[in-house]
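Example record

One chain of 132 residues, shown exactly as stored in the release files.
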Amino acid sequence: MSDIKSVNPKQAWSALESDSSAVLLDVRDRIEYAYVGHPQGAINIPWKELPDWKPNPHFIDQVRQRIPQRDTPVFLLCRSGQRSLDAAKSLASEGYLKVINIEEGFEGALDANQHRGTLSGWRFHGLPWEQS
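Predicted structure tokens for this chain:
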């Protein structure tokens, strides 16, 4: 199993911009991806899905369909960084060689008022994103 690197959102964006072979994989549920927003150019393959938040049993197969080359740099993102880390571990165990977890995720950590997006995360850093 390869080592899983972690980078912050700005480092991820810089790496994605400089390597056209790199892929940004958003592993949040489809509802989060569509309504909360997502990084521009991200591929959405949920790691866990509503309503029970169990791991997607087809995750690896769906990734293989979209990212067949196992040496492709794959940057994984979720809401705050935990689901993407779990998904990265799964991909590494399946032979993907360059899996990189994006710390802070799309929305970042909770602040004192239990709100996300005010301390960290992809949107907080002003990186390109959109909503469906």
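Notes: The first strand starts at residue 5 and ends at 7.
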